[in-house]
Automatic annotation (TrEMBL):
InterPro entries referenced in this protein's UniProt entry, alphabetically: IolE/XylAMocC-like, Xyl_isomerase-like_sf, Xyl_isomerase-like_TIM-brl
Cited Gene3D superfamilies: Divalent-metal-dependent TIM barrel enzymes
Top-rank lineage group of the source organism: Bacteria
Organism this protein belongs to: Halalkalibacter okhensis
Domain Xylose isomerase-like TIM barrel: 23-252
Protein name (record): 3-dehydroshikimate dehydratase
Amino acid sequence: MKLSVCTISFRHHLHSIDQIAHWASTHHFQGIELWGIHAKNLADDPKYGENWLNSYELQTSMISDYLPLEGSVSQMMTETMNMSKLAKHWGTKKVRTFVGKIGSQEISLTKRKELVDRLRMICDFFESEGQLVLVETHPNTLTDNLASTIQLLEETNHPALRINFDVLHMWESGVCPIEAIRRLSPFVSHFHFKNISSREHLNVFAPENVYAAAGTRKGMTPLFTGAVNYQDFLDEIIPKMEVEASLEWFGPHVWDVLGNDSLELRKRMNEEHVLRT
C-alpha cells in the first residue's frame, strides 16, 4: 500500500507545507495528497513542486480539486487546464473532482446528461495530457451510490475517467463497501480512508460543516474505532489490487490521529502478511 496524508487535514492549522512534508516523511507516509487551493497558492513559489517533494522521499499522490462542471464551458476548461498544469508541476497524473451538487435520485435527466457531457470534455483534455480524472464517491453528486457510479462510468465511457473510492461515503449510501469495490475495482485509482462513530453523526461531513472552522467534529473517530469495518475491507482489497490511499482527518489533534492511524495500518498489514505466509 502507498499511503498519503491529505493537506486538507491541515486547513484550519497554522502549519507550512515544509512542516507537513517533514512530518509525513518521518511517519512512514509515501505521499501527499495536495488540496487544489493549496497547489494554487504555492504556484508562485518555484521552490515547491515535484523535485522539492521528492527530496523528502515523498510523491504527490493526487491533487484534489472541485472542477466547475456546472459553470460556463470556458470557465470549466480554464480551471481544467490550470489544474492539469499544477498536476504536472507536482508530478502526479491524478486530479480528483466531484460530479455535480445534486444527488442521483434528485437530478433531472437533462441535467445529468449535461454533466456527463461536461465530464467527457474534461476527460478528453486530461487524456491528451496523459492524466486521469478521478471522480469521488460522495453524497449529493452523481456518484452518491453504487448504481449511479456504475451508470456514470458507462455513460461517460472514457479511459481517462477513474474513481476515487471514499469508503465511508460508499458505506453511507447503504451499500457494503466490499460489495462495491468488487464491482468498481477495475476503475478505482485511489481510496479515501476515514471513519465515524455511528450513522447518526454522518452530517458532520456535510461541506457546510466540515469546511467551517467552527463546525462540529462530533462523531469523527480514528480509522479502526468507528462504524465502518476497515479490517474486513483491507482484507478484501490488499491481496487483489495495488492500493493507493489517503488518510483523511477533519478533527482535532491531527498529528496524533494521522500518525496513530498510519502506525495501526502498517501493523495490521504486517500481521496479515505473516498469517498469509
